[in-house]
Design brief:
The complex is a heterodimer.
Chain A: H1 11-32, H2 34-39, H3 41-46, E1 51-55, H4 62-67, E2 70-74, H5 95-105, E3 114-118, H6 122-134, E4 139-143, H7 154-173, H8 176-207, H9 215-225, H10 230-247, E5 270-276, H11 282-290, E6 293-299, H12 304-307, H13 310-313, H14 332-340, H15 352-364, E7 369-375, H16 379-394, E8 399-405, E9 408-409, H17 411-433
Parallel strand pairs in A: 1-2, 1-3, 3-4, 5-6, 5-7, 7-8
Antiparallel strand pairs in A: 8-9
Helix pairs in contact in A: 1-9, 1-10, 5-6, 7-8, 7-14, 8-10, 9-11
Chain B: H1 6-16, H2 30-47, E1 55-58, H3 65-70, E2 73-75, H4 77-86, H5 90-99, H6 108-119, E3 134-138, H7 144-156, E4 160-163, H8 175-196, H9 202-224, H10 235-241, H11 243-247, H12 252-270, E5 281-286, H13 295-302, E6 305-310, H14 311-314, H15 329-338, H16 346-359, E7 364-370, H17 374-377, H18 380-391, E8 395-400, H19 410-429
Parallel strand pairs in B: 1-2, 1-3, 3-4, 5-6, 5-7, 7-8
The chains are: A alpha/beta, B alpha/beta.
The structure holds iron/sulfur cluster (2 copies).
Chain lengths: ~450, ~450
C-alpha cells in the first residue's frame, strides 16, 4: 500500500497529484515551445488581438497592452551562448539583458509588433536603446517607472507615465488613448483574476505542510502565463488551482519534514526560498531541488514580484495584488497604485518593503534556508545581497549565493555548493532535534 | 561664446610658424593652487564636525548648491574613490568590501569607498571619511549610487534622501517629469532643514547658483583653449583639474581658481606651449579616467598624441543657470540635473561627442570601456559607430577599470594603442585630417 510520510494511505492523494502534474506539464510545454506559440499569429487573431507586444520586467502594465488590443508577451532569454549582442553591448553588461537582446538581434522576436520597456536598471536601459535602433519593430515605448516609490506625488507621476503609454499604444492601435482606457476595466479584471489564481497557488506552496507543486513546476506555471493568451491561461490556471485544492494541504504532522512536492514521499526535502532576478529556465530551480530540497517560495522577477503586493507577501491584510487589497483598477491611478504596491525589485527605493517581503516569505514558508540566484553582472541584486544575507542570518536562516550566467547556473559548481548547503542545514536540524544549540 | 575663442585661433596661427622640436610643458602652475585648494577642502571636511558643520555625503550629479547655501559640508565618496585609484590603493579597499560580500563586478568607486568606510581607514588622514549626518543621492548618473548610498546610510544609520530623476532619452524633459523632480527638490530642502537644523535662504541659494554659473563659464573657457595646436593641456591635467568643479562648485574659491587656470591656459595657448609640443594626433577620450594608470596618457604623449577633450570633463560644462532661472531656482535645478550626460539618450550623447570632436579638431576618439561603470560604457559601441560614420574618424577601445587595476592589461593595451596610432599616421600621410575633414573618410574601429 502506498503511504505518505506519516504512514497514511496516500492513494487518493497520488491520483490527485498526478492530475496536477499532468496539467503543469501541459503548461510547461507551452513555455518550452514559446517561440512557436507566439509565432502562431492566427491564434491571436482568432482571439481578437491586433497583434503581439513584448514587454520587460514586472513593471510594464500588461493591462494596458491588453486594453490596446495586443497580446502581451514577456521577453525572456534562452539559456546558452550569445552572439550578435557582442557587437552592441560589452560582456560586462548584465547577462539577462545581453541574452534578451541577443535573441532579438537574431530575429527571434521579429514577429512582435513592438516592445515596452519600463525603467529599471542601467543595463536594461541601454539594452532598450539598442533594441530601439536594431530590432525591426513598429512600436517602441520606454516608460519611466519611478525608482523611488515614496517620492511626493509618485502615484500621480506613475499614472501620468502610464497615460503616456496608453496614448502611445492607442495611437499605434488606432483607437486613441480613450479607446485603451475604455477597455482598461475589463483587462484589469482579467489580470486581477490571473493574479488571484496565481496568488492561491503561491499561498498553497508557501503555507501547506505538503507543497502541492515543486518550485520547478511553479516556475513553469508562471512562465507559461507570460507567454500564453491571457484568457486561455486564466481558464487553465483555474483548472489547475481546482486540482491543487482538491489535493489539499497534506497532513499537518508532516510539516516538520517539509512537503514532498513531486509526490515523492520517500524523500524528506528541505524547504527553501529562492531570491533573485529573472529566472527564465525552470531547469535552474530543478537543479536547486535535485539536491533534496523543495522551493516553497520565491522573491523573483519571474514569480512573486510580478503579481504579489508587499503587504500580501508579508502575510498582511492586503491580499494578493489584483484582488481584495488593491481591487481591480478601473483607471490609471488605480493601476499606478497597484504597480507601486508590488513587492519592490532591487532597482527601487526604499528597500524596507523588499526586505520585509523576503523575510515574511521565508518565515511564512517555514524555510530552512534561502538561495540567492544572482544574474552575473547584475548590480542592484549584488548590492542588496550582503544586507539581505545579514537580515536572514539575524532570523536564524542560512543562505547561499549562486550566480546565474546566460540563464544557467554553473552546474558542477552549483551542485556541489548546494549539496554542502543542504548538508549543513541537515546538520543544524539534527542538532536541534537532539536538543542541542537552539538556532 | 565663440568670440572668446579668437585668441585661441590666433595661437594656432602663431604655433604654425614655429620651427623645430620644443620641450613639452611641465605641470601647470595652477597645480600648486589646486593641491592647496583641494587640501583645504578636505581639511574642511575632516574638521567639519569640530566646527559644528553638518556633513552630507553626496553624489557627483546631485544638486550641491542648496548645501553650500546652508553651510553644509558636501563630501563626495565618488571623488574619494578616484583618490583611492590615483593613489593606487583601490584594490586594498575593494578587497575589504569584497570580503564583506560585495561582488567584484560592482562599481569600484563603490567597492573602494565601502571598504574604506567599513575599515575606517584611508589614504588621506589614515582614517576613512568623516561620518555623514545626512546622505544625498541623485539617480541621474546611475542606479548604482542608489544602492551604494543605501549601503552607507545603513552603515551609519543616518537619513538618506534619494532624488529620482526620470531618464531623458531626448531633450527636453517632459513637464510632468520636471514637476516630479521639482517636488522632490523641495522635499530635499525640507529634509536638509529638518536634519541639519539649518534654513535655506533663497537669496543665498541664488548667490551660490551664480557662482556655479561663473564656474561653468570659466570651465568652458578653460576647455576652449584646448582648441589650439598644440593643445595647452591634456586629459592628464583636466582629470585632476575637474576636482573643484565637482566638489566645491558654487563657492567663491572655486570661481577664483578657474579664473587662474583659464588665464594660464590662455597664456600657454598664445605661446604654443603644451604637454605635447610636436602634436601630431589630437584625440578625444570617452568615459572616466583610468586613475591608477596615468602612465598610459604619457605613453600617448610620447608618441605625439594628446587628448584635447574628454566627455567626462566636458560634462561639467553643462551645468549653468541664467538670470531668468533665478526667478525659480528650484525648477531650474530640476531641469539642469535631469539633463546630465549620463541621464540622456545615446543620440544626445552622440551629438555632444561629435560636437566636441569637431570643435577640437580631433583625429580620433578613444573609448575607455570601463568595466566598473555600466551607465557610462554600455552605449559606447553605438557612439563609436556614430563617430566613424558621421565624422569618418577612427576609434579605439581600451578595456579597463577606472580604479581597479586587476581588470587592465598594460602590454596588450599598449599594443592596441600603437596599432591605432599607426592608423592615424596612415591617414595623415594620405592627406586626411581631423574631424573637420567631414564624413566618409573611412574610419574604423581599431
Ligand atoms: S538582472 Fe539586474 S541588471 Fe539584469 S535586468 Fe534585472 S535588474 Fe537589471
Ligand atoms: S557606476 Fe559609474 S556613474 Fe555610477 S557611481 Fe560608479 S562610476 Fe559613477
Amino acid at each position: 500500500m502506498s503511504q505518505d510520510i506519516a504512514g497514511r494511505d496516500d492513494r487518493p492523494r497520488a491520483a490527485a497529484r498526478q492530475e496536477v502534474a499532468r496539467q503543469v506539464a501541459e503548461l510547461a510545454a507551452v513555455y518550452a515551445d514559446r517561440r512557436a506559440y507566439l509565432a502562431d499569429a492566427a491564434r491571436f487573431k482568432a482571439a481578437g488581438y491586433r497583434g503581439t507586444i513584448g514587454y520587460f520586467c514586472t513593471y510594464a502594465p500588461e493591462e494596458l497592452i491588453l486594453a490596446a488590443g495586443y497580446h502581451p508577451a514577456r521577453i525572456v532569454a534562452e539559456p546558452g551562448m550569445v552572439g550578435p549582442v557582442d557587437g552592441h553591448l560589452q560582456s560586462f553588461a548584465c547577462s539577462f539583458a545581453r541574452g534578451c537582446l541577443d535573441q532579438a538581434l537574431r530575429g527571434h522576436y521579429d514577429g512582435l509588433d513592438g516592445v515596452v520597456f519600463p525603467a529599471t536598471c542601467d543595463s536594461l536601459r541601454h539594452a532598450a536603446e539598442i533594441w530601439k535602433r536594431n530590432v525591426p519593430q513598429r512600436f517602441f515605448h520606454f516608460m519611466n517607472f519611478p525608482s523611488r516609490l515614496d517620492a511626493p506625488g509618485v502615484a500621480e507621476y506613475t499614472a501620468r507615465e502610464m497615460a503616456d503609454l496608453a496614448e502611445a499604444l492607442g495611437a499605434f492601435a488606432g483607437v486613441g488613448a480613450a479607446g485603451v482606457l475604455a477597455k482598461l476595466p475589463e483587462t484589469a479584471a482579467l489580470m486581477a483574476e490571473v493574479r488571484a489564481l496565481l496568488g492561491r497557488l503561491w499561498e498553497a506552496r508557501l503555507t501547506w505542510p505538503l507543497p502541492p507543486l515543486t518550485g520547478t513546476e511553479a516556475l513553469s506555471v508562471f512562465l507559461a502565463g507570460v507567454v500564453m493568451e491571457r484568457r486561455e491561461y486564466r481558464d487553465r490556471l483555474a483548472r489547475l488551482v481546482a486540482a491543487v485544492e482538491a489535493l489539499g494541504p497534506g497532513a499537518a504532522g508532516d510539516a516538520a519534514a517539509g512537503g514532498a512536492g513531486a509526490g515523492d514521499a520517500a524523500s524528506v526535502p528541505v524547504r527553501l526560498v529562492v531570491t533573485g532576478g529573472v529566472i527564465e529556465d525552470p531547469a535552474t530551480i530543478r537543479l536547486v531541488e535535485e539536491s533534496g530540497a523543495v522551493v516553497v517560495g520565491d522573491d523573483l522577477c519571474t514569480g512573486t514580484r510580478s503579481f504579489v503586493t508587499s503587504e500580501a507577501a508579508t502575510g498582511g491584510a492586503g491580499a494578493v495584488a489584483g484582488t481584495a487589497g488593491a481591487g481591480s483598477p478601473a483607471d490609471l491611478s488605480g493601476l499606478a497604485r497597484l504597480y507601486l504596491a508590488k513587492v519592490p525589485c532591487p532597482t527601487k527605493h526604499p528597500i524596507d518593503r523588499r526586505v520585509d517581503s523576503l523575510l515574511g516569505t521565508a518565515r511564512r514558508g517555514r524555510a530552512a534556508g534561502v538561495v540567492f540566484l544572482l544574474q552575473k553582472f547584475c548590480e542592484t541584486h549584488a548590492f542588496d545581497q550582503p544586507y539581505l544575507t545579514s537580515r536572514l542570518t539575524e532570523m536564524g536562516l542560512p543562505s547561499l549565493v549562486l550566480e546565474v550566467e546566460q540563464g544557467r547556473l554553473t552546474e558542477g559548481q552549483a551542485g556541489t555548493r548546494l549539496g554542502a548547503f543542504l548538508e549543513m542545514i541537515a546538520g543544524r536540524r539534527e542538532v536541534a532535534a537532539n536538543g542541542g544549540a537552539s538556532r | 561664446m565663440s568670440d572668446k575663442t579668437t585668441g585661441t585661433s590666433g595661437a594656432t596661427e602663431l604655433r604654425a610658424a614655429e620651427p623645430g622640436p620644443v620641450k613639452p610643458a611641465g605641470r601647470l602652475k595652477a597645480d600648486a593652487d589646486l593641491k592647496q585648494l583641494m587640501g583645504k577642502y578636505y581639511n574642511g571636511v575632516f574638521w567639519a564636525h569640530r566646527l559644528h558643520r553638518p556633513i552630507a555625503w553626496i553624489t557627483s550629479g546631485a544638486p550641491v548648491e542648496p548645501l553650500y547655501a546652508m553651510g553644509i559640508t558636501p563630501v563626495y565618496p565618488e571623488n574619494y574613490g578616484a583618490i583611492l585609484g590615483s593613489r593606487k590603493c583601490a584594490v586594498e579597499y575593494c578587497e575589504i568590501a569584497e570580503g564583506a560580500g560585495y561582488s567584484r563586478d560592482l562599481c569600484s568607486y563603490a567597492r573602494g569607498s565601502i571598504g574604506s568606510m567599513m575599515a575606517d581607514r584611508g589614504p588621506l588622514n589614515g582614517r576613512g571619511l568623516p561620518a555623514p549626518d545626512v546622505l544625498i543621492c541623485a539617480k541621474n548618473i546611475c542606479n548604482v549610487v542608489v544602492k551604494w548610498w543605501e549601503v552607507m546610510a545603513r552603515h551609519y544609520n543616518k537619513p538618506l534622501f534619494i532624488l529620482d530623476t526620470p531618464y531623458v532619452p531626448e531633450e527636453p524633459v517632459k513637464p510632468h517629469q520636471l514637476e516630479f523632480v521639482r517636488g522632490q527638490l523641495e522635499e530635499m530642502i525640507a529634509f536638509l532643514e529638518k536634519h541639519t537644523k539649518r534654513r535655506l535662504s533663497r537669496s543665498r541659494l541664488v548667490r551660490v547658483l551664480e557662482n556655479s554659473t561663473k564656474t561653468v563659464a570659466l570651465w568652458e573657457e578653460v576647455q576652449r583653449y584646448r582648441q589650439a595646436s598644440p593643445s595647452p593641456s591634456s586629459a592628464l591635467d583636466m582629470f585632476t583639474n575637474m576636482a573643484p568643479i565637482v566638489a566645491i562648485r558654487g563657492t567663491d574659491a572655486c570661481v577664483k581658481y578657474y579664473r587662474k587656470l583659464a588665464d594660464e591656459l590662455k597664456e600657454r595657448a598664445a605661446h604654443g606651449v603644451g604637454p605635447v609640443p610636436n602634436e601630431r594626433y589630437r584625440l578625444v577620450w570617452d568615459n572616466i579616467a583610468i586613475w591608477h594608470n596615468f602612465r598610459l596618457m604619457k605613453y600617448f604623449h610620447e608618441r605625439g598624441a594628446v587628448f584635447v577633450g574628454e566627455t567626462y570633463t566636458n560634462a561639467w560644462g553643462e551645468y549653468s543657470f541664467s538670470p531668468e532661472d533665478y526667478k525659480d531656482p528650484i525648477m531650474a535645478m530640476a531641469r539642469q540635473y535631469s539633463g546630465v550626460l549620463l541621464n540622456v539618450g545615446p543620440e544626445v550623447r552622440l551629438g555632444r561627442l561629435l560636437k566636441m570632436a569637431r570643435d577640437y579638431r580631433a583625429d580620433g576618439v578613444v573609448f575607455h570601456s570601463n568595466r566598473s561603470c555600466k551607465t557610462y560604457s554600455l552605449s559606447q559601441y553605438f557612439l563609436a559607430r556614430g563617430v566613424q560614420e558621421q565624422l569618418g574618424l577612427p576609434t579605439l577601445f581600451i578595456e579597463a577599470d577606472m580604479t581597479d587595476p586587476r581588470a587592465y592589461a598594460d602590454a596588450a593595451t599598449k599594443t592596441r594603442v600603437d596599432a591605432f596610432l599607426e592608423i592615424l599616421e596612415g591617414r595623415k600621410e594620405a592627406g586626411g585630417v581631423g574631424a573637420t575633414a567631414g564624413a566618409g573618410a573611412g574610419g574604423r574601429t581599431c
